[in-house]
Amino acid sequence: MIRIAVINLAGVPSIVYGVFGLGFFVYMMGGSIDQLFFPEALPAPTFGSPGVIWSALTLAILTLPVVIVSTEEGLSRIPSAVRQGSLALGATKAETLWRIVIPMASPAIMTGLILAVARAAGEVAPLMLVGVVKLAPTLPIDMNFPFVHLERKFMHLGFHIYDVGFQSPNVEAARPLVYATSFLLVSVIVALNLTAISVRNHLREKFRSLEH
Q1: How big is the CA angle at 49 (ends 163 and 19), to the nearest 5 degrees?
Q2: How many angstroms separate the CA atoms of 183 and 11, rounded?
Q3: What CATH number has the domain bearing residue 159?
Q4: Which of 30, 34, 42, 163 has the fewest CB neighbours in a 10 Å radius?
């Protein structure tokens, strides 16, 4: 049943995740947090409005099926003899899981993270419902306590490309900015993927000897 649910989640359109994030995270969870911890600010919402934390949780749920499938495949490829050998040497199940199984499955887990990052970085539609705005007057990070303001809205390169390229009154003048923003977004995605691939390859070489 869990596997069927994961497969179904992988086929859900991203905008549906945005609607779910808006209803569950923003209105339900955020509204509850405001009533419990920020009643003096009501009716003005603090966490009951779109923000960084709700966007992060929405993208986490959106990319979860990819990570689950790759992690399951990585765990299934670990020889049972390795687990049995660890248990035969006196290790507990928790020690076997933490020191043998997870490290050997880490390359597959990193592969899932690479695919998840690549998918999440290109998503704009769900973020428009749970945190992205055309212009954010302040950054989520500043020098004021608590320094990282998870309730604030933020700008997104993907939405900025759409806004400048298709909502600008002078499309020709905005075209260089669209190209520059697109190049920056692709560069960030490539840098993230290359970093993750290098980590995955390092882990694969590190634990290759355990497979034999």
Answers
A1: 70
A2: 29
A3: 1.10.3720.10
A4: 42
**Of 122, 115, 107, nearest in space to 193 by CA:** 115
pTM of the model: 0.81
How many other CB atoms sit within 10 Å of the CB of residue 183? 10
Which candidate, 177, 140, 130, places its Cα nearest to that of 167? 177
Alpha helices in 44-147 (DSSP H): 52-76, 80-88, 93-96, 102-121, 125-130
- Amino acid, res. 94: A
Nearest to 158 by CA among 186, 115, 124: 124
Taking a C-beta distance cutoff of 8 angstroms, is the pair 118, 189 a contact?
A: yes
Residue 143, φ and ψ in degrees, nearest 5: -90, 5
Q: What is the pLDDT of residues 148-168, one digit of tens each?
A: 888 889 999 889 888 888 888
Residues 6+ apart with CB under 8 A from 73: 108
Structural domain that includes position 49: 2-211
- Looking at the structure of the chain, the number of domains it has is 1
Type of residue at 28? M
Enumerate residues 6+ apart whose C-beta is below 8 A from 81: none
